[in-house]
Structures are given as C-alpha cells and as structure tokens.
C-alpha cells in the first residue's frame, strides 16, 4: 500500500538496533559496490592522458571533449543495461544479477588496461575504447539499482536510510580509490612513464578488484521481500512502471539529476577543469580531490542516518538549497588560484552532494512497489545519470567554450537544483515497504 509522506511524519517504525545479518549484508554490498564503481570512474581521472593517446587532435580542449564523449557513452549504456538486468531481477530474483554485473564491469576494465593506442592501431583504438566503456555502462546500469533494491529489502524499516547511506558510502569510496590511485601515480611516476604505460595500472588493478567483488557477492542471500512476492511477479515489469508510475519516474529522476550532475561535476570533472583552465598541478588537485571524495563517502553514511531521523525529503531540500546558494561563489573562487579556497569549495561540495545522494536514493527506492521496484528504480536512476551524469563534463566544457566564461558550470548545477527543489516541495513522495 502506498502512503504519501505528509511532512515526513511517522515514516519510520520504532528504532531497532542493527542485526548481525544487516551488518553483514550492508558491509558486503558496500564493499562490492565500492570495487565495481572504482572500475567505472577511474577512467575520468585519466581523461587527459586518454585523450592524447586515443584521439588524434592538436587541441587539448578538443581532446578532452572527445574523451568525455567516451565517458558519456558508458553512461548512455547504463539505461539499456538497467532495463535488461532489472527485468530479470524483478522476475527471477535480486541476487542473480549481482555476480554478472560485477563480472561485466571487471572484464572490460582489464581490457582497457591492455588496449593499444591510436599510434599503434589507428582508428581501432578509440573504437575499442568506446566498446569497453559501453559494456561497463551496461554493467553499472544494472548494478546500482539492484544493490539499492537488495539492501533496502533486507533492512528493517528504521534502518533503511542507513542502508542506503552505507551502500553509497561504499560506492563513493570506490570513487575515492580511483582518485587516490590517480594521485599516487601522478606523484610517484615521471610524467613520461605515466603517459607511456603507467596509466594502464589503475585499469589492471580494477579488473582484479572486480573478481574479488564477484567472490564477495556469493555470500549474500535473496531478499525476504522477493521470496514473499514470488506469486506476484509481473510479466513485463517496466510496462507496469510506465502505465502506473509515470509521475513517480519524473519526480524521482529530478532528485537524482542533482546527484548525477554534482558527482560528475565536483568529484569527477573538477580535477581536469582546474588543470586545464587554471593550470593547477595534477598532483595537487588529485590530492585535494581524494580528500574530498573520502569526506563525501563518510558524510553519505551520516546523512543516511539523518534520513532515518528526520526524513529523506528534508535532507534533499537542504542539499538543493545549498547547491543553489554556493555554486556560483565556488566557481568564482577558483580564479583566485588559492588552495585554501579550493579546500573550502570541495568541503561545501562534499556536504551538499552527500546529502543529495543519501536522500535521493532513499526516496527513489521507496517510491516503487516490490514487484516492479528494481525496474522502476533502475529506469529513473539510469535515465538521470545517462542524461545528466554522462553529459555533464561534455556540457560544461562546451558551455565554457561557447561563452568564454569558466563560471558557466555553476549555472548548470543551479538550474538542475532548482528543478529538483520545486518537484520536492510541491509533490509528495510515495512510500512502499
């Protein structure tokens, strides 16, 4: 039965302590998500190098745009992957998708680490790179919504915010690993060695980590919710999503837009932005970025707990307001070339992004009934990330090129935040067990 969240009152039952089973499931899901997401995002931290090695262009900005286009291809594949994996996840079980998505992530990651460059095989180099990113996108499109569904359905009602926060604490820690590996390689390798062969190391590591994630998933059991609803399985889950939950798709997607743009802009795109337009050293920026991503990971867990206390809608509204207020000053501050101001900017971005992440994921997964939960959550999540997450680096780089203003990215995140805030304020979210 669906209940609108009026003023977010009484959204949780009495508080119950975490059970040993919950701790095991939360931990293994978070670790698996961390390893898989490392595989997906590590590419962006080496985008500058990849653009030089896989694309033939004399302009560094044009090379970046081409490299970000490859990044976007992985995001667009997420929508297709989400549709396929969620269909079987709603019909055959949540657990069955886990191992396959991780394997499909690990294999192309390892292959990217072995790919010959443009100078070696010409046009086939970028083609193979796009193909690998596309397969990665298929995998991640099924992984995140499945993990959300899996962990939400295992959690007690009073711990569902914590469950979402724990999962994305792990997922964002994978982003931290990517940033940290980039920092370590940049600091301890000569630039010539890094451009020649060192860039391959993080992808090869990612392939191995992916196999570890496959092993970890073997310890998880099917969700009790799916076991109970086996007789209610829908023939074509996505069809019912479109027929009965159109407004829910729109509303949940707007909240996820904020997360998609914020993560892509502040935590993935920013190192290359600061290096390209303000000429900061990669080592310095990746160090700051690594600290910010680690903080984001921890704060996501904290805001998940806050969602259990005051409700996810209030937390989402807080994050949107924060983005609207600070985004312009943040990008204006970058021109000062002051490291202290950059630390402050990253701090604000981490707080707002973590609040948006924990709350929007909670609101997403509770907004669809169990029989179509994976399909509904998957479509909304991947639609938001395919359009806004994947295109954000490309959009803001193009905006800067067209306007000549390096502050342009601020207008984009402000625009998206205003839309999400309006939908949150004027339409109640649904809640399903």
From TrEMBL:
<dbReference type="Pfam" id="PF07690">
    <property type="entry name" value="MFS_1"/>
</dbReference>
<feature type="transmembrane region" description="Helical">
    <location>
        <begin position="197"/>
        <end position="220"/>
    </location>
</feature>
<feature type="transmembrane region" description="Helical">
    <location>
        <begin position="247"/>
        <end position="270"/>
    </location>
</feature>
<feature type="transmembrane region" description="Helical">
    <location>
        <begin position="406"/>
        <end position="426"/>
    </location>
</feature>
<dbReference type="GO" id="GO:0015293">
    <property type="term" value="F:symporter activity"/>
</dbReference>
<dbReference type="InterPro" id="IPR020846">
    <property type="entry name" value="MFS_dom"/>
</dbReference>
<feature type="transmembrane region" description="Helical">
    <location>
        <begin position="25"/>
        <end position="46"/>
    </location>
</feature>
<dbReference type="GO" id="GO:0005886">
    <property type="term" value="C:plasma membrane"/>
</dbReference>
<protein>
    <submittedName>
        <fullName>MFS transporter</fullName>
    </submittedName>
</protein>
<feature type="transmembrane region" description="Helical">
    <location>
        <begin position="124"/>
        <end position="152"/>
    </location>
</feature>
<keyword id="KW-0813">Transport</keyword>
<feature type="transmembrane region" description="Helical">
    <location>
        <begin position="290"/>
        <end position="308"/>
    </location>
</feature>
<keyword id="KW-0812">Transmembrane</keyword>
<feature type="transmembrane region" description="Helical">
    <location>
        <begin position="66"/>
        <end position="86"/>
    </location>
</feature>
<feature type="transmembrane region" description="Helical">
    <location>
        <begin position="340"/>
        <end position="365"/>
    </location>
</feature>
<comment type="similarity">
    <text>Belongs to the major facilitator superfamily. Metabolite:H+ Symporter (MHS) family (TC 2.A.1.6) family.</text>
</comment>
<dbReference type="Pfam" id="PF00083">
    <property type="entry name" value="Sugar_tr"/>
</dbReference>
<feature type="transmembrane region" description="Helical">
    <location>
        <begin position="98"/>
        <end position="118"/>
    </location>
</feature>
<feature type="transmembrane region" description="Helical">
    <location>
        <begin position="377"/>
        <end position="400"/>
    </location>
</feature>
<dbReference type="InterPro" id="IPR005829">
    <property type="entry name" value="Sugar_transporter_CS"/>
</dbReference>
<keyword id="KW-1003">Cell membrane</keyword>
<keyword id="KW-0769">Symport</keyword>
<keyword id="KW-1133">Transmembrane helix</keyword>
<dbReference type="InterPro" id="IPR051084">
    <property type="entry name" value="H+-coupled_symporters"/>
</dbReference>
<keyword id="KW-0472">Membrane</keyword>
<dbReference type="InterPro" id="IPR036259">
    <property type="entry name" value="MFS_trans_sf"/>
</dbReference>
<dbReference type="InterPro" id="IPR011701">
    <property type="entry name" value="MFS"/>
</dbReference>
<dbReference type="InterPro" id="IPR005828">
    <property type="entry name" value="MFS_sugar_transport-like"/>
</dbReference>
<feature type="domain" description="Major facilitator superfamily (MFS) profile">
    <location>
        <begin position="25"/>
        <end position="432"/>
    </location>
</feature>
<feature type="transmembrane region" description="Helical">
    <location>
        <begin position="315"/>
        <end position="334"/>
    </location>
</feature>
<feature type="transmembrane region" description="Helical">
    <location>
        <begin position="164"/>
        <end position="185"/>
    </location>
</feature>
């Amino acid at each position: 039965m669906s209940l609108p969240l009026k003023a977010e009152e009484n959204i949780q039952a009495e508080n119950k302590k975490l059970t040993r089973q919950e701790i095991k499931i939360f931990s293994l899901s978070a670790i698996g998500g961390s390893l898989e997401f490392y595989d997906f995002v590590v590419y962006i931290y080496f985008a500058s190098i990849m653009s030089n090695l896989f694309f033939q262009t004399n302009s560094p900005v044009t090379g970046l745009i081409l490299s970000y286009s490859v990044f976007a291809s992985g995001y667009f594949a997420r929508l297709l992957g989400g549709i396929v994996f969620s269909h079987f996840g709603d019909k055959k079980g949540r657990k069955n998708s886990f191992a396959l998505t991780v394997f499909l992530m690990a294999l192309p990651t390892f292959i990217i680490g072995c790919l010959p460059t443009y100078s070696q095989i010409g046009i086939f180099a970028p083609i193979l790179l796009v193909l690998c990113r596309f397969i990665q996108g298929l995998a991640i499109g099924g992984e995140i919504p499945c993990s959300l569904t899996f962990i939400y359905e295992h959690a007690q009602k009073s711990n569902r915010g914590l469950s979402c926060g724990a999962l994305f604490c792990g997922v964002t820690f994978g982003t931290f690993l990517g940033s940290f590996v980039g920092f370590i390689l940049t600091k301890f390798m000569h630039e010539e060695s890094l451009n020649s062969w060192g860039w391959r190391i993080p992808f090869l590591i990612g392939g191995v980590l992916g196999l570890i994630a496959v092993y970890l998933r073997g310890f998880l059991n099917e969700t009790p919710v799916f076991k109970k609803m086996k007789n209610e399985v829908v023939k074509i889950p996505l069809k019912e999503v479109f027929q009965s939950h159109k407004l829910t798709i729109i509303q949940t997607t707007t909240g996820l837009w904020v997360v998609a743009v914020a993560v892509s802009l502040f935590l993935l795109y920013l190192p290359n932005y600061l290096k390209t337009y303000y000429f900061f050293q990669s080592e310095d920026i990746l160090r700051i970025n690594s600290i910010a991503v680690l903080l984001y990971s921890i704060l996501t867990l904290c805001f998940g707990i806050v969602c259990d206390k005051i409700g996810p809608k209030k937390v989402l509204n807080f994050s949107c307001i924060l983005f609207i207020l600070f985004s312009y000053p943040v990008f204006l501050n970058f021109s000062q070339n002051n490291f202290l101001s950059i630390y402050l900017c990253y701090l604000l971005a981490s707080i707002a992004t973590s609040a948006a992440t924990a709350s929007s994921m909670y609101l997403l997964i509770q907004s669809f009934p169990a029989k179509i939960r994976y399909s509904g959550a998957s479509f909304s999540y991947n639609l938001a990330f395919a359009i806004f997450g994947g295109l954000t680096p490309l959009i803001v780089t193009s905006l800067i090129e067209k306007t000549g203003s390096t502050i342009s990215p601020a207008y984009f995140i402000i625009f998206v935040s205003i839309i999400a805030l309006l939908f949150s304020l004027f339409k109640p979210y649904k809640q399903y067990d």
